[in-house]
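Sharing a chain and its predicted structure for anyone who wants a worked example. Both blocks are below, sequence first, tokens second.
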Amino acid sequence: MEFWANPAAKQPRITPVSKKNEKSRNTAGWPRIALGALSGLLAGFAALAVAELVAAAVRPQAGPVVVVGGAAIDRTPAAVKDWAIRNFGTNDKLILQLGILAVLAVFALALGVLALRYRRIGAAGVLAFGVVGTAAAFSRPDSKGFTDALPSLVGAVVGAVLLYVLIGRLLASRPASDDASEHPEKGVNEGWDRRGFIIVAAAAAAASAGAGALGRTLNSSSGKEAVASRKNLVLPAADSPAAAVPKGAGVRVAGVSPFITPNKDFYRVDTALVVPKVDATTWRLRIHGDGVRRPLTLSFDDLMKRELIERDITLTCVSNEVGGPYVGNARWIGVRLDDLLTECGVTPPSKGGPADQLVARSVDGMTIGTPVEDVMDGRDAMLAIGMNGEPLPFDHGFPVRMLVPGLFGYVSACKWIKDIELTTFDAYDAYWVKRDWARRAPIKTQSRIDTPKPFARPKVGTVMVAGVAWAQSRGIDKVEVRVDDGPWQEATLAAEDTKDTWRQWSFPWRATKGGHTLTVRATDRTGEVQTDKRTRTVPDGASGWHSVVVTVE
């Protein structure tokens, strides 16, 4: 009141803020922009670390990177998936996850910078990623509902709060200096809460690293019961054992794939970013659907007590390019699938059965559709429990997987199987069919040169050209090799194990100096010669002749 009553009284000096100074109040400057970006990165790191820890309490498949990656796989066009497998091989999942992390890092950096000017919007941006993770979690075929969304939600909230606090430390100013009235540019813009920012940032980084490490450890140790059930499993002897592999089934040429593919080297192509670990003691399989007069639910012990068959069978992935690596041969032990279906009262379509498609469902939500006629035509289709003398590895479907000789894996080889439903192709499209792959996909007659490798530089003289050929359910009758544009010359076939396994071959080539193209083709037991027509893997497998270019020195 006295101030207003006495206009002549001495009043505080107010210095106008210049346009230059006003600009400095509203811009952070490059150092502060860098710190804002760092804040965003720390917030993103904290969100992921906390989410990883929460996922350990829920299930490893609920982690945000996993659910978002799974949703991305589900929505990726077949051609793009094919490209990824062709270029990255079995590392495609790792590349996808690294790509997701890279994108998240870029967005986190951008949100940190944005928060310098719009603090709440930046924090809300972090929450938005939680919404994306939640939506992805609900969209997964094996979704457990809200519990799968918890890791993404909790992680996003923690990240948003941390970003808000860190940006607050950057925007907080030190008390104005005594000469602020004389030099306003040294006032509220003189600095920021350096000590507070460093403390919060360091604490957040340490806590996030600890939470992430703990979550990773807990997730990696999950499924102890499943691991124990596999470790304690002793496979019984097969009631119908496989014959010994013929001594001459493998050619003695360096560089050729071994006749039996070791489990550790067997190809793996699937959509699971986290390999399911299923406890064999609690596993159940349900068989039901159209034409199933006697529905059946089986435990793992039930399968073990049934008549077991042992067979050598070569599996092939539809994503295998001509000359590609996604083919392998193993000795499998399991239960005949046609016996189980017959027990349930199922008859094939050729005998009047109403169902022409068998839909196998995995614990991770994968669905695979197989022609009922192929399963029940006498081939050794089975529910496998063992591979090369040991229980199935987790990567290859423990405790039980399905396989049907002569069909590409995407229409026959359901891993971690839990359900078999009989239906029709008209009534239901399985996972890959919805993504432009063919409903029916018998394996094509194919051959591959294993040695010499492309661009090899062998010496003049006799060079052994060798490899493998396959035509499961039909068998290989002949393999021929061509040098440049010369005539086809018949290769020497190794002894045949069964018509369901690949067959090795060799050809002694009198190599002359210079560049040469070696080409191979196979003929199966039906007389069909491998086509030279080059096609891509989509929609029902690649075709064409495999060739390698070498330079003889």
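Comments welcome. The mean pLDDT is 91.
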